[in-house]
Amino acid sequence: MSKDLLLEIGTEELPHLALQEGREQLEARARELFVDNKLNFQSIQVYGNPRRLVLVVRGLEDRQEDQLIKIKGPSKKIFYDQRNEPTRAALGFLNSHKASLQEVKIELTEKGEYVFIERTKEGQPTEKLLPQLLRSMILSISFTKSMRWGGSNLRFARPIRWLLCLFGDCHINVEVEKLVPFLVQKTGLAVDLAVVERAAYLCKTDLIANMVVE
Length: 214
Known about the structure:
Layout: E1 2-11, H1 16-36, E2 43-49, E3 52-61, E4 67-75, H2 76-79, H3 88-96, E5 105-109, E6 112-121, H4 126-140, E7 160-167, E8 170-171, H5 205-209
Antiparallel strand pairs: 1-3, 1-7, 2-3, 4-6, 5-6, 7-8
Catalytic activity: tRNA(Gly) + glycine + ATP = glycyl-tRNA(Gly) + AMP + diphosphate
Keywords: Aminoacyl-tRNA synthetase, ATP-binding, Ligase, Nucleotide-binding, Protein biosynthesis
InterPro entries: Gly-tRNA-synth_bsu, Gly-tRNA-synth_heterodimer
């Protein structure tokens, strides 16, 4: 099952260069993080105006893909004795990974033939992964000119005043330094729009799209 992800970084007024750098890096970092963490999605869009950077990920799966993991063991020469029976080292390797001899596979590597076993790592719920992934994404954004504020170690082009994140209609708590995410805030439109329900923010996407600064 897939849902839309929306992350808004609200700031004091961003210079044009910082806005451009922020948009480019936000898209690149998001794409990299989701691919590396086996989180499938349909599309990524980044919007922005001088008071906000907005990431919209359409069709983000609600769970990671399961991953096939190969565990490398001893070399074949150490694993088997001259009678082709498992050695003490072999039994220790199998016991430590709760594996049977039938699970063993021999593969040729640059250093010769080695023993491997395979395990399937079950994917975690996306909702569980997002707080840390989005935090690291925000912290990774760099600018030609950046600043610290309020005694924080966080550097950004301008002070961040709010973070707001929704995955479907679920609020994601993304904590960065002393910033506390919240749901109710103003959009900066001609008519202020207060978001008082989680689902209501999904309707805000189209409004944000009309505020894009190229």
